[in-house]
Amino acid sequence: xxxxxxxxxxxxxxxxxxxxxxxxxxxxxxxxxxxxxxxxxxxxxxxxxxxxxxxxxxxxxxxxxxxxxxxxxxxxxxxxxxxxxxxxxxxxxxxxxxxxxxxxxxxxxxxxxxxxxxxxxxxxxxxxxxxxxxxxxxxxxxxxxxxxxxxxxxxxxxxxxxxxxxxxxxxxxxxxxxxxxxxxxxxxxxxxxxxxxxxxxxxxxxxxxxxxxxxxxxxxxxxxxxxxxxxxxxxxxxxxxxxxxxxxxxxxxxxxxxxxxxxxxxxxxxxxxxxxxxxxxxxxxxxxxxxxxxxxxxxxxxxxxxxxxxxxxxxxxxxxxxxxxxxxxxxxxxxxxxxxxxxxxxxxxxxxxxxxxxxxxxxxxxxxxxxxxxxxxxxxxxxxxxxxxxxxxxxxxxxxxxxxxxxxxxxxxxxxxxxxxxxxxxxxxxxxxxxxxxxxxxxxxxxxxxxxxxxxxxxxxxxxxxxxxxxxxxxxxxxxxxxxxxxxxxxxxxxxxxxxxxxxxxxxxxxxxxxxxxxxxxxxxxxxxxxxxxxxxxxxxxxxxxxxxxxxxxxxxxxxxxxxxxxxxxxxxxxxxxxxxxxxxxxxxxxxxxxxxxxxxxxxxxxxxxxxxxxxxxxxxxxxx
Length: 625
Ligand code: ADP
Ligand code: MG
Prior knowledge:
Helix content: 25-40%
Strand order of the largest sheet: 1-6-5-4-7-3-2-8-9
Structural class: alpha+beta
CATH architecture of the largest domain: 2-Layer Sandwich
CATH class of the largest domain: Alpha Beta
CATH topology of the largest domain: Heat Shock Protein 90
Shape: elongated
CATH superfamily of the largest domain: Histidine kinase-like ATPase, C-terminal domain
Bound molecules: adenosine-5'-diphosphate, magnesium ion
Mean pLDDT: 87
Strand content: 15-25%
């Protein structure tokens, strides 16, 4: 019988099989990533750095750890004779059980994604490998065997050694080690001897691990290789663009440079340093190092939280970077940090800095801002829709296409600058896509009188408009509203002398429509709001406005838009013709149906456009007759 006590001793665990995915990862790594092998060192250094961060944090509240005064550092030595490489850290360390757990499975989500990509047959595996964390196992790309010796920070723990040759199993046994931390010893493969050369190691460390927050010492002379400075604590004028970009790359492993960045050094009301980045793409790559939203939060250079979401307004969650404040109370739990007044102040500072940076970018680099808008515009709209703090501040950041400026971005200020002298309101139209929107009959009048109209085609727009009712005292007005009032026109453009249905015949024609369409519409009437279009649909009085209808439609699947009023253009040739057609004529009914369904289609409300084809063919037949 195996007792619990026996089961937990290292001997009873040997030899231990790897979990399935680990084995696969190992095979793929060894065989497909030959040219990118050097990244194994980045992975081991990053693990050492994580272990140092954890002991650093632990010691804030617990001084009864092993070797409390040991320098927090990483030491790398190589022996070209023996062909070995050793990476030592004074971090948190691992017990035998922790080694079996941590080094026997792939916890790393990047590694899982990588196995999945390999199984799907992704061709450019070697291209993507440089961009993501594969973890501890990547060392088997260069290792004949690996021995990990560790002593946990818990003073009473036993040191243990993990050993593996890259086959199906590993072993764990007790070891001699008195100092706290972990030592990874690698016996290099014959074809990996280069990694026992110090000059080669120096290059790799500078390339991939320059901003690791703990010193990395190399060789017997213990020469420090990484620059290790907290770049955010440097004087602003001393840091160059390439440093910011390099730091961004090491922080995120995103290889596209950020669209822009901001460096903050603030003394009041709270002390803080920060570097904030706007990434080039909204979608975080599958291989990024940043697995969640949030900024890295430091206090006095100690990493307090890897993903601090409380520093960013929700709608700025795409921002990456680092915040460091001396004013955070350190000896408290993370929960208390979240609630603290300092956090609220930091968040406010961060939010205004982001807005300021975006405004500056919009002014100084409009083209770059266009890229920003393309990627992140919906986050700005979301901020307005959800009434984030300072949501008024977001208004100037909005950009739109308009009926007169279809392919460029205009701000609300651009729009106001171009307004007609008599114009008070900012006009907009809502729809599903710009191409069908520009055909909308609601624009007839606007075009005729030269009013510019914003084209709003994103789902979030309706939500935004519920909040954004005014900009600089100009109300935002939907041109599809039945009761839209345009300013009185001084020189009404002369209408062409085209035949019009005489007023006294309107009632008869309207009745024909009503009888034919039945309860598909709530009413039919004539309008003078149309010129090029024969008909349009508008909401009956008292119906929820179009923005709310769209919001309901998105929130509730079974929401039916209210029935509409069909408005007819008495000057349009189709209606003039229809009016002179005998009501018994078969074509009369067909034309009415088609006019109605065209109007439905242009509103984006037609449930089944293909169903119109039979009718259209009939119309063609008689036209060609
Ligand atoms: P990840 O670092 O993403 O968790 P790795 O495969 O790189 O994945 O490492 C697996 C785990 O092994 C780590 O999460 C950690 O618990 C443990 N580990 C690896 N190296 C060290 C080390 N030097 N000190 C302490 N723990 C380590
Ligand atoms: Mg790791």
